[in-house]
Structure prediction request, 280 residues.
Amino acid sequence: MWQSLVTLSLRITTSPVFTIFIVVVILTNAVIIGMETYSSMLARYGTLLHLADRIILGIFVVEIVLKIIACGRRPQDFFRDGWNVFDFIIVAAAFVPGIENQTTILRLVRLLRILRLLSALPSMQVMVVAMIHSIPAIGQMALLASLLFYVYAVIGQTWFGTHDPQYWGSVHIALLSLFRVLTLEDWTDLMYTTMEAYPYSWIFFVSFVLFATFIIFNMLIGVILNSMDEARKTIREEHARTQMPDLLDSVQAMRTALDDMERHIHPTNTSLKPNKQNNT
Prediction:
């Protein structure tokens, strides 16, 4: 009975249809939270929205219970997966005593359920893991970009501070102007203004655009793509580790079955030996 329940739970939780259903429920939860921000909607459909929220919470609880049952005789395996722990904390937060009276905190907790899309969609998991893996490299690139910004800000303030003090009057204002150039938002206006006094100032702006916008951004994209490849490998290894206990159980069950067959066959063989000796 228990084994059939475990098999059924595993079949349900690993079904693509079940995954799509959970994604739809998460998106529905997001729509309900958005509708509650409109006072007219809340006044007209407040009771219905609250009921829908309770139903969605119940679905999430049932999902977690099914996943725990699917772990069989080792329910602790459910918490070995970081994404399962993430889902459990988000759902369990709704049952914290006294949170129903804290409207703002309750809404934030319900809003966190939208983040369950990260665990429901494998592609989103890859992106999150890739971002985490790329943090050290991004930190080094941020240091490089900061040095580049500071050098250009000092040069810009020194050269253009007198002619265009609105955008280059001090280092911190020059940094903001360089950020505007980085976003490519009307950066040519700044360039043409400085070119009135310094005709060759275009070298300053063009070089900064090449270094900051193209080279650093392309390096950043390369780091993220490399991290995504590493994330895919990490997720595959984690899935392999989580499936290893099930494989061991299957092997153990096969060994037990073979031992039972051997015990049933062995007495028959021993009983045949005396008969053969008597016949001889």
The chain has a mean pLDDT of 81. The radius of gyration is 32 Å. The domain at 125-247 is CATH 1.10.287.70 (Helix Hairpins). Residues 81 and 239 are 9 Å apart (CA to CA).
